[in-house]
């Protein structure tokens, strides 16, 4: 699915190549038969508007949006596993899927980076790619909703991915659950996350419980991102406290 590769390109860190080859990218969208005419037009208009920005401004906005805080991270497992040990095994399993598909992963990117996952799906049949998108539909809806809350044009790309997946989920379905969510990309929130505090291991606690206590102490008062429970059937957004075993 050529359109998935193009959307992945648009969700990656803005590069000069996109600006230089804008017309070629727009033309490639026109050749993407897996999306309908209305979707092709909307994507072409998005590219035209996006590339009217100054490149440095686009890069700065991207960093502020996706690399500051966890709520809009493009690392998929951030929204499922957080910092739990399950995330490591999920990474290993995904890497095996990439290798089985004949893909070599650049060591600079983690395997759950969304643009990389979209490139992987683009090598599959339309049916397989749609199933792969449907697997992450709750994450796409959550990210799309958070980007809508931030008035970001990037949200439209997540709406398009959801439409392509065939999922019944939409970003609008998630927005009500975000009304009480506190932004985690403010200076105060970022300072709270990185603030170092003294760690005290208590009595006969095991190493695991000691690490958990240290984590709770370090992030006490910090903004808590929400995580998704993908095994709960319908989309459910849970807090980090709910996500811990």
UniProtKB/TrEMBL annotation:
InterPro entries: DMSO/NO3_reduct_chaperone (IPR020945), NO3_reductase_chaperone_NarJ (IPR003765), TorD-like_sf (IPR036411). Keywords: Nitrate assimilation. Pfam families: Nitrate_red_del. NCBIfam families: narJ. This is Nitrate reductase molybdenum cofactor assembly chaperone.
